[in-house]
Amino acid sequence: MKLVFATGNLNKMREIREIMSGLDFDICSMKEAGIDLDIDENAETFEGNALIKARAVRNALDASGSEELKKAVVLADDSGLEIDALGGAPGVYSARFMGEDTGYDIKNAEIIKRLSGKTGKQRAARFRCVIAAVFPDGRELTASGCFEGVIANAPGGENGFGYDPILFLPEYGMTAAQLSSEEKNKISHRGKALFEMRKLLETTC
Questions:
Q1: Which of the residues are catalytic?
Q2: Do the strands 140-151 and 124-134 form a parallel or antiparallel pair, or are they unpaired?
């Protein structure tokens, strides 16, 4: 059975394949499944956006004419950085913060600038992820995970992507971008959500 993930992000697909390895699924991105969609993620919650994406890809697979794709399970995620001092921003707008074409080095520098003068818990932040699954029979499941930390005073690390270099993890003494991929998969927001979704898939498929 195919498991189609509603993303074209190669970094996400790498993490997904690592965590979902061993499941009895042929895992592929929607692009690899031949689906090219421009999905309007207009919900106000991560769960809402994840479901919007999963349902859109589910509909595209159903209309594809491929019996194999019609039987596929669709997964989609939405995730972002929540900063307490900014009222939870950028939140669901994380990818669009300062514009989708703005590089994360610029976004990260701006966030650090906005938290200038704040210390300790005043810099509390977290990554949040929700993963939605839509089955061929219309059933829907969701799983979520959080990755708690504080905003670093300066970016650090080259192993991650996006906002990873500025989420500092006090208990590890490093940023999310300084963790190895194996460490990150075990404790990250997406890793936790994927592990939870993996359990759900193992019991329902």
A1: 78
A2: antiparallel
